[in-house]
Amino acid sequence: MNRAEFEKEVMLNQEPLRRFLLNLCGGNASLSDDIAQEAFIKAYLNLNSFSGKSKFSTWLFRIAYNCFCDNKRVSNRYSSEELNERTHMAQESADAKYKNQELYMALSKLGEKERTAILLFYMEDKSLKDISVITGMPENTVKSHLSRARNNLSTHLNTIGYER
Amino acid sequence: MKDDNIKMFFDEHKQNIADDGFSSRLFATLDCLPEPKPKTDKTPFVMVISITIGVILFFEGLSSVGVVFTNYKSATPEIIISVFFTFCSLLALGRYAIKDNA
Question: pTM for the full model?
Answer without folding.
Answer: 0.71
